Amino acid sequence: MANKTVTLTDNTTGKSIELPIMDPTHGNSVVDIGKLAKEFGYFTYDPGFVSTASCKSTITFLDGERGQLYYRGYPIEQLAAKCCFLEVAYLLLNGRLPTEQELSEFQYIIGHHNMMRENLRYNLIRGFNYDAHPMAMMTGIVGSLSAFYHDNLDIYNPEHRMITSHRLIAKIPTIAAACYKHNTGQPFVFPQNHLTYCGNLLHMMFAVPCEPYHVDPVAEKALDVLFILHADHEQNASTSTVRLAGSSGANPYAAIAAGVASLWGPAHGGANEAVLKMLAEIGDVSNIDKYIARAKDKDDSFRLMGFGHRVYRNYDPRAKLIKEVCHQVLAKYGDDPHLELAMKLEDIALSDEFFIERKLYPNVDFYSGIIYKALGIPINMFTVMFAVARTVGWISHWKEMIDDPELKIGRPRQLYVGEAHRDVPDLADR
Ligand code: CMC
Questions:
Q1: How far apart (Å, rounded) are the C-alpha atoms in residues 236 and 69?
Q2: For residue 307, how far is its CA from the centre of ligand 1 (angstroms)?
Q3: Residue nearest atom 45 in ligand 1 by C-alpha distance
Q4: Is 20 helix (H, G, I), strand (E, B) or coil?
Q5: CA atoms of 162 and 160, how far apart (whole Å)
């Protein structure tokens, strides 16, 4: 309906302002408060942006109440069943699925940007201590790409933006594998263009020069599905970080590095690492009740990692799909005592009034860690795997933002509650 509005009235002065309502394709309508500060003199207060739409986007939609996730209008379940990761990457970047020919051209392009500069490998990566956390290395190395691609990069040129996107999608698995090899002390393995995107990552991580390495199709498929499910998730913390960093016109590699840093936190992408640490700490099914009680105790900071989501107040649709993949992987790689523990924990939490009332369900990270562990990926690499998959989401949002005629530098306001005015006393009088 055209011209829908909301009227906001200041009950002290009686002054009112009419604010336009914007209708989405799906989801909540949005009140346009753009003129509120200028015409009414107020800012809005919304810690954690729980009620704030920061941009218009055509990339991803998720329905938290129904537990549905769409990329460019396609349900995640269909994409996971019918497409490979690079098809989904093409979709997120370009807004439509590729034809067979476009997909093979895209695979060729990604295959021809996937090497890393030798001085990065020799000087930067080797400069890190052998036990550096790979997310710390990733943050630094992705940011350092801006030193290689800056002077000749015009972010307002669509062709330059697309080349940047291709470079990032292509190089991120090579960087991730290089971090892993640095941690393990093994020689770096170069990308192989006859392999798929995920097959190549497994190869670069696990191959050694002294014997042939064959990519296991079960592992490759599991990773491919996981990467599709992790590829984008609309305006989450890391994507919003990329947008905010990039909104100043900053170098896109530096903006993506900011996204990597944001993803690292245990409330975001770091949760998959935290889940495994939590399962190890719980140790045995007999200890579950104690940990559930701790999670419910307001005076205890412990939370059940892998449970809850800011937007999904029903089941996380990605968790449903990942649970299936998890069983396929474990059927091949053998049972993991952590899975049994995870299942019991899930059962108990889902029947507990505290979790039911707050709609706390297992999220995507509850299962992804168990899969990664079964595939032989060490715990500190879990969030790196997430970062590899999410890079396409970050760069698609950055591209969309730079293209947006309404783009403004992101500049939130605040409710200042500090000292009103103080005169600086002389040092001797303090
Ligand atoms: N364990 C125990 N209680 C919880 C949990 C949890 N995992 N999550 C939320 N709660 C409680 C919380 O204490 C609060 O209770 P009350 O209303 O009595 O104060 C209520 O549920 C609402 O919590 P909230 O902190 O207001 O919710 P939020 O939307 O701000 O937080 C979250 C979302 C994901 C940060 C949070 O659920 C959490 O910390 N989960 C564990 C970490 C995790 O698994 N993160 C991965 C998210 S999915 C992957 C991704 O997209 O990055």
A1: 13
A2: 7
A3: 267
A4: strand
A5: 5
CATH number of 80-411: 1.10.580.10
Reduced to 3 states (helix: H, G, I; strand: E, B; else coil), residue 186 is coil
Mutate to test the pocket of ligand 1, among 282, 292, 297, 358 (most ligand atoms within 8 A of CB): 358
10: annotated active-site residue: no
**Which distant-in-sequence residues (6+ apart) come within 8 Å of 357 by Cβ?**
none
- The pLDDT-based confidence of 150 (bands split at 50, 70, 90) is confident
Residues 326, 376: contact at Cβ < 8 Å?
no
- Asked if residue 39 lies in contact with residue 50, where contact means CB atoms within 8 angstroms, the answer is no
CB 177 within 8 A of CB 189: yes
Amino acid at the residue 428: A
pTM of the model: 0.91
The answer to whether residue 327 is catalytic is: no
Q: Is 82 exposed, middle or buried (0-12, 13-18, 19+ CB in 10 A)?
A: exposed
Give CATH for domain 4-53: 2.20.28.60
Q: What is the mean pLDDT of residues 262-273?
A: 89
Domain range annotation of the chain: 4-53, 80-411
Residue with tokens 């990457």: 89
Q: How far is the CA of 363 from the centre of ligand 1 (A)?
A: 10
- The pLDDT tens digits for 5-43 are 999 999 999 999 999 999 999 999 999 999 999 999 999
